[in-house]
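Repro:
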Amino acid sequence: MTNQDSFSSLWGIPSVQFSATAATLALLVLVMITQLALRIYRLYMHPLKSFKGLTEACISEDWLYKVTKDGTAEEQFEALHQKFNTKALRIGPNELHITDIELYKVIYNQSKPFLKHAPFYDGFNTPHTVFAELDPHLHKERRRMLNPLFSKVGVYKLEPLIHEKIYTLSSKINRLCGSKNIDIYNAVRLLTTDIITEFAFAKSANLIEEKTDEMDSWFLDAFDVGSQSVVDLQYNTILQKLVAVLPVWISELFNPRLASILNLQKYAGECMRHWQMSSGSSSHPVIFDSLKSISDEAKVSEAMDILIAGADTTASTLATGFYHILSDQRLKERLVRALDVAMPEPGKLVSLQSLEKVEYLTACVKESIRVGMAVPGRLPRVVPNGDPFIVEGQVVPPGTIVGMSAYTMHNSVEAWGSDARKFNPDRWIGPESKDQEKWMCTFSKGARMCLGQNVAPAEITLVFAYLFRNFELSLPEGHMTPKGLDRFTLQYEMPGLPVVFKARQ
């Protein structure tokens, strides 16, 4: 009889059961030892050990996942930068958040950019798009196809479409304004989504009129729910792989919110197929006319990216601008006076080129873009080999993930002065305003700068001009400051931004 048999016989435990129990315990002990060793390594031996940060942030990504999921990451990073008195905060085992504003142009460089951090961008489940492509050469080729459409000249060609959709929105506002407050946040989200779907696919989504008596749509509901699951994918590479291959109903079992993202992807595919059937029949430029050479799979991914970027980013900036202008009667009256002069005929929208010459309108647009950062959070990059990357006298090792944010740049007293957090259009009036452009990072910088850098200001200019010229707008009594959350794009919680509209006589 073996020792194990004797032991089993003595205690009345079958030998197979004992072996399984012992193996399980051994495995648990091994996992615990491994986790402990990893934590000790990350705290005391990791190349970033000398950079300050919370202990829980240094030992695992769980803390970073939680604050990102909460939608308040940048505010928490800011508080910790102050607590530790550092411009290079360790927010993950291998990640630093940087607040030295002079380093933005180093990280997001035109000629030698730091490469994108794969897990972060893979979380959007849109591989190899202009937005998510990691390879600079492949990105450059795809972007070359689209640059003419998003140039200044391309935007002027798109202007009639923007006018048309603004007229549709204003007609609905006219219909509703006597009976209820109007959520301007949802209203402009419907507007920008209708614009981008027609611009991209020559397909009128007609979300503005989807619901007769309110500013809402299935698309906004799906977007709001789906955007909350992006962070789950960014911090769970196994989930990323499963979502890419499993049917919607199975993916939903892992995370119910994933179904919303996948339904949006399905809708993007339907839009793309509509374009294929109606190609060449549009009176305005169409994005996918420039993407005929790429695969159908790549078209669907690109369609999803275009919908996300075009639908929500400009809308949140518009809502921010409306809130700040309506919160200050002096600013509103000054803008309305300028528009009354530039647009003497009510109901008639003048050209974008003419409106861009209205100094105070342009100042309000720029300040809305600065304060209403469409993408407020960090954009992670990987430190390359070569020239050392130095922050506060410390060399950041190659392979480290680093990131800066529009939130940091646009709230910097060093860049904007003591009123950096104040909505002040006057900062854009005068010769010195040109010098401030270098600190604007809403669309990022360098070779990966957002394609929409000309489209967004055009939409904001035309919307502000038409609505402030033709309606008397005010915030309702007892209004509360809308709460914005960082879901990669800035999103406002319900009830959005209710506004009182009255037709101007």
